[in-house]
Amino acid sequence: MKPQPGNLVKTAEYKYETKALFRGYNMRVLKIDLASLSILERPVSKTMKEKFVGGKGFGLKLLWDAISPDTTWDDPENEIVIAMGPICGNTNYSGSGKSLVVSLSPLTGIPIDSNVGGYFGPFLKFSGFDALELGGKVGRDSIIFIDGDEGKVQIFEAPEGLESDTHILAEKLTRAFAASEKDADLAAVAVVSAGRGAEHSRIGLLNFSLYDRRRGGCRVKQAGRGGIGTVFRDKGIMALVCRYSKLGQDDNHAADPATVQRLGLKLHREILREDDKQCKMRKVGTAHLMEVMNDYDLLPVKNHRFGADPEAIKLASWVWESRFSQGLPDGCWYGCTLACAHAVDRFELKTGPYKGQKVCVDGPEYETAAGVGSNLAIWDPEGVLEINFYCDTYGVDTISFGTIVGFLMECWEYGILDARRSRGINLEWGNWRAACEILHRMAEGKDFGVLAGRGTRYLAQYFVEHYGADPGLMKDIALHGKGLEQSQYISKESLAQQGGYYLTNKGPQHDEAWLIFMDMVNNRIPSFEQKAEALHYFPMFRTWFGLQGLCKLPWNDIEPADNAKWEEPSKVPEHVDNYRELYTAITGEPLSRTELIRQSERVYNFQRVFNLRMGRGKRKDDYPPYRAVGPVTEKEYLSRAERYDAQLKEKIGLDPSVMSLAEKIAAHRKYREAMYDGLVDAVYKRRGWTPEGVPRPEHLAEIGMDLPELLEVVKKHV
What residue stretches are annotated with the Aldehyde ferredoxin oxidoreductase N-terminal domain (predicted)? Predict the structure, then answer.
């Protein structure tokens, strides 16, 4: 049956008053309990706004209130929260279309947050809500429809036989809930969905659709990390749909719209003038990093063993530029001049249930091209695109998937896996069809695909218990922190980046701190104290984007022409001041550089205490696998032997000429692990935490987060 509101079985309905935002806020939350099918509004208190700001902050606060320390990811009490910040939805300033999704992660058991573009978040906000809470579970697959035009929320049973694969579902529901087949009406509908891969794995993502008028169909952006799509399908949600057709230039009802326009125009001109000279985001997006990372020995190759490969030229930015469609920039929200979200049209699939069909592939972005390309020694762009498409439509995180398959392929090389254990899948390096076969079996809920979908941490332990794998080797080469797979940068030669990955609250995701160039290439932060300062400032500043509903890319992937002349150019200070001014122009509230960081500190420390509340969040949880720190195997050492031998002599004071290879590897390990410990000490001190990584009560008081519920948790650990 073709899904249409008129022929779907409605199980619940709620009508609400639509009203204009005031200075970026609705001051209300939409809460849906799927178990009871109840729909209600909740007010946002003044305290919640002041302490948590919006976006990620609102998501964490609402999740904290909903669950207990004993809640697991698949309990009905776990929630998915989609929240927007006060700047979200602004169509004048590039990168203002982000929303944040928060839930307990199936991979880590602690809160995960994932930012995402697309139209759903802004549409939800303009429909009347600063956040959407989804709790409970429903017995039958359901579709939730939020109609911002008419002020109503409806829940429908999904019709029998409705496909969950995103490239089909998003199209059907967009057309089903649009007012007409006119482009303007189709573009007023946004869909959130997962897919069959999310149903049968712990690495499911959420796809946020947008109707692309130039293509005449839907594209998607992803809230990719931590398995939120898995939670989504476990709750019985097939899709969220939001309709909002009244989009205007100032739907945030800013305090000073003229300043918002002025700042947006300033950035617009800067992007058009400088982008081609800098990162070429408008032409290739983040894929421009492929050759850059390869040149600096930072590109993940064969499960992060190596940082470069001569074959990498086959996945260079110009290869993707030649495939990206239409020769025009692709944005994921209105008004973004940076427009880095590219796609490949009419790509013909070679495997799986859609073999022979021509589809639109969203990307690849750098993390995908590196994760399922170079990291697997897959140098065929066609193979990368095939994996990219199926990950998206099945609802599978490409970062986790690439890291998992890299681990599996290395285990195959060592003989830990064979054809019998992999159920006939040949996991030799470079076999992109094998990676696709894992995806297809994952979507089918079948044998090795389901096992792979449990995540790297689970697999490492499984191979020890069932296949007699060496526990030390498994611990060293399984690239995860807290259970979340590491994203796709080689961190061996950047102590600061090791911290940027593993001193995060949620696990090794690069969106908190990307310090490789500051640390390794430019040597701007040589001391522990300087690294600790960077690992304070940059995670806090990047957290701020997630509070406001902003994309970070217009901050530092485009820079003013004279940025190098400023003090601390790595912070792009002119842009920092732009953001401060933008926040004030929308909210009417002044914001100093100090208070900007303080807003983030409150939420960041709240998340740390949240982890403690869930039984994690101490020093032992912040250690990386050794593969992220230094050479595990002889092959790794020999690939950089000259560099490593020089370090033995210059940094450690040993003579490599009289040492065996095993002794060299052991000496490096002792030194590098001690360096990481020194970094942890310095970072914790700078963040106001104890040597065990617990926020001190006096620090919480200093930043205005000495809330009784937080003090109750931390006092158990200090």
Answer: 25-246
